[in-house]
UniProtKB/TrEMBL annotation:
The lineage of its organism: Bacteria, Pseudomonadati, Pseudomonadota, Alphaproteobacteria, Sphingomonadales. This is Glycerol-3-phosphate dehydrogenase. It comes from Sphingorhabdus profundilacus. Residues 385-492 form the Alpha-glycerophosphate oxidase C-terminal domain. GO terms for biological process: glycerol-3-phosphate catabolic process. Belongs to the FAD-dependent glycerol-3-phosphate dehydrogenase family. Its cofactor is FAD. One of its GO terms (cellular component) is glycerol-3-phosphate dehydrogenase (FAD) complex. Residues 7-348 form the FAD dependent oxidoreductase domain.
Length: 504
C-alpha cells in the first residue's frame, strides 16, 4: 500500500462508504476502501431494512427529503431487484391520534411527489372484510394500504463494495485507520498493524464515529459546522405473527411509530425505537426496556401478544443524524450534510458525511463525488450508478420469480426455500458458485439450513467474509436458524480453510 498513491481513500465500510467507493471507482479513479471491521458491521446492518420515502417525515415538513427518497426507491429497485422488492404496508387508523382524512392526505402526497411508476397506489381497507385485518384486534376497522420496498441492508453494502472492487477499487476490511495527517498536499493514513496508505483525498464515512475520525486527524484547518445526534434504534425478531403478505405500520399514542414486517419466511421483524445514545459505539444492543416497549406496542395492535420471552433475536444500531435541535430523537432530521475542507493550498481535501439514510445512499454518493470533483478532476462528469445493476441484479425488476424457476430447472436437487434465499441474496451471481454442480454432494460440506461449503468458500474468497458471524448475520440471515453446535462446526471449517490457504 505504501508504494501507491490513491486518488481517494474512503474510510468506513457502511452503505455510504461502499456507495461512494463504487461511484468513484466507476469513474476511473484509484480508490481504496478502509473498514475497521466487516462490511456493514454497524448501523448499515441494523436498519429496519426498508427502502422508503419516510411517510412520517411528512409530518415534520421534510418534503425535500421524502421526495428524494421516493425518487430513489424505484431507481434502487431497478438496479438491485434481487435484494430489493416491493412490499405493501397496512396502516391501521388509530382513532384519537390523527384524523383519517389527514392520514389519507399524507398518503396522497406520498403517492404523487416522488415519481411513482411501478408501485401500486394507496387504497383504503375495511379491516373487517379484508384478510389484512385478520391479525389485528377487532377495534381497528379502517386502514390504508400503501407501497414501499424491502431491502437486505447488509447485502446492499456488500454488493456496492463488490462492484467497486470490480471497477478497480481495493476493499480492505479489518483495517482500522488510527491516525491521519497531511503532508505536501497528500493524506497519510496510519492503519493498525498494516502499512500506511497515501491518498490525494479522503472521505470520512465513518457513520456514528465521524467525529471520532476527525479527532484522529492532524492538520485540519477548521472544525465542521455540523454536529451529529446519535440515536439508537432497536428491533426484535419473533416467530411469525401473521400469515398475510403485507407489513404493518402502526402509530403509538406517544407519537412514535413501529413496523411489523414479514421476515425470512418464518419470522416477524418489529421495530424501531428512537433513543438518544450515549456511550461506546461498539457492541450496540437493545436494552431490556426497549424490548419491552416494542412488545407492548405490538400488543396494542395485534391479537397475538408477544413478551420478551418470545424474542428470538434483537439488534440495535446507532444512526448518526444531523443535530437540528429537535426536542425528541424521533423528530430529528434524516437528511445529510457534507463538510469539505482542504489544506492552505486547496489540496488534500477531506469530505465528512453527517447524517443520511439507507434509501438515499446512492444519491448521497453521487453528490459526495460531485463535491470532490473540483479537487479530483477525474471525478467530474455525469453520474453512472443507475446505468449498471449491482452484481447479480442484471434481470428485470419483477423477474425474481422467473430467475428462481430457471435455477430450479438447472439445479433440481435444491429445495425451493434454498433457491428463494439464493435468488434474494445473489441473484444471477448464485451460478458463480453453484457452477456445474449436479447434486448436493458437489456443493461440499453441509452445514444445515441450505448452507454448503461452496457458498461459504465463495463468501470468503469473493465477499470478504472471514468469520461465522460475517456469514450468518450479514452475508446471510441464517444465524436465526443455526444452533450453537452448528455455529461451532462452521467456525471449525473456516479455521481449517484459513490455515490451508495460508499454507498454500
Amino acid at each position: 500500500m505504501s508504494e501507491t498513491i490513491y486518488d481517494l481513500a474512503v474510510i468506513g465500510g457502511g452503505v455510504n462508504g461502499a456507495g461512494i467507493a463504487r461511484d468513484a471507482a466507476g469513474r476511473g479513479v484509484k480508490v481504496i476502501l478502509l473498514e475497521r471491521g466487516d462490511l456493514a458491521r454497524g448501523t448499515s446492518s441494523a436498519s429496519t431494512k426498508l427502502i422508503h420515502g419516510g411517510l412520517r417525515y411528512l409530518e415534520h415538513f421534510e418534503f425535500a427529503l421524502v421526495r428524494e427518497s421516493l425518487i430513489e426507491r424505484e431507481r434502487l429497485w431497478a438496479i438491485a431487484p434481487h435484494i430489493i422488492w416491493p412490499l405493501r404496508f397496512v396502516l391501521p387508523h388509530q382513532k384519537g391520534i390523527r384524523p383519517a382524512w389527514l392520514v389519507r392526505l399524507g398518503l396522497f402526497l406520498y403517492d404523487h411527489i416522488g415519481g411513482r411508476k411501478r408501485l401500486p397506489a394507496t387504497r383504503t381497507l375495511n379491516l373487517h372484510r379484508e384478510p389484512a385485518g385478520a391479525p389485528l384486534k377487532p377495534e381497528f376497522e379502517t386502514a390504508f394500504e400503501y407501497s414501499d420496498c424491502w431491502v437486505d441492508d447488509a447485502r446492499l453494502v456488500v454488493l456496492n463494495a463488490l462492484d467497486a472492487a470490480e471497477h478497480g477499487a481495493e476493499v480492505c476490511t479489518r483495517s482500522e485507520v488510527t491516525h491521519l495527517r497531511r503532508a505536501q498536499g497528500l493524506w497519510h493514513l496510519e492503519i493498525a498493524g498494516q502499512a500506511p496508505v497515501v491518498a490525494k483525498a479522503v472521505v470520512n464515512a465513518a457513520g456514528p464515529a465521524v467525529l471520532d475520525m476527525l479527532a484522529r486527524t492532524d492538520g485540519r484547518i477548521r472544525n465542521p459546522d455540523e454536529k451529529i445526534r446519535l440515536v439508537r434504534g432497536s428491533h426484535i425478531v419473533v416467530p411469525k405473527m401473521f400469515e398475510t403478505a403485507q407489513a404493518y405500520f402502526c402509530q403509538n399514542p406517544d407519537g412514535r411509530i413501529f413496523f411489523a414486517i414479514p421476515y425470512e419466511d418464518d419470522f416477524t421483524l418489529i421495530g424501531t425505537t428512537d433513543a438518544d445514545h450515549r456511550g461506546p459505539l461498539d457492541n450496540i444492543t437493545a436494552t431490556a426496556d426497549e424490548v419491552t416497549y416494542i412488545c407492548e406496542s405490538a400488543g396494542a395492535y395485534f391479537k397475538k401478544e408477544i413478551t420478551p420471552a418470545d424474542v428470538i433475536y434483537s439488534y440495535a444500531g446507532v444512526r448518526p443524524l444531523v443535530d437540528d435541535g429537535s426536542g425528541k430523537p424521533e423528530t430529528a432530521s434524516r437528511g445529510y450534510h457534507f463538510d469539505v475542507e482542504c489544506d492552505e493550498h486547496g489540496l488534500a481535501p477531506m469530505l465528512s458525511i453527517f447524517g443520511g439514510k439507507i434509501t438515499t445512499y446512492r444519491h448521497l454518493a453521487e453528490s459526495a463525488v460531485g463535491k470532490l470533483s473540483p479537487y479530483v478532476p477525474m471525478l467530474a462528469g455525469p453520474g453512472w450508478t443507475l446505468e449498471r445493476a449491482l452484481p447479480g441484479g442484471d434481470f428485470p425488476m419483477e423477474g425474481a420469480g422467473k430467475l428462481a424457476e430457471d435455477f430450479a430447472t438447472k439445479y433440481p436437487f435444491l429445495d425451493s426455500a434454498v433457491i428463494r434465499r439464493l435468488v434474494r441474496s445473489y441473484g444471477t451471481r448464485a451460478k458463480n458458485w453453484l457452477g456445474k454442480s449436479q447434486s448436493l454432494a458437489d456443493l461440499g460440506q453441509d452445514f444445515d439450513h441450505g448452507l454448503y461449503a461452496a457458498e461459504v468458500d465463495y463468501l470468503v474468497t469473493c465477499e470478504w467474509a472471514s468469520t461465522a458471524e460475517d456469514i450468518l448475520w450479514r452475508r446471510t440471515k441464517l444465524g436465526l436458524r443455526f444452533t450453537a453446535t452448528q455455529v461451532k462446526t462452521l467456525e471449525k471449517y473456516l479455521a481449517t480453510s484459513q490455515k490451508d490457504r495460508a499454507d498454500s
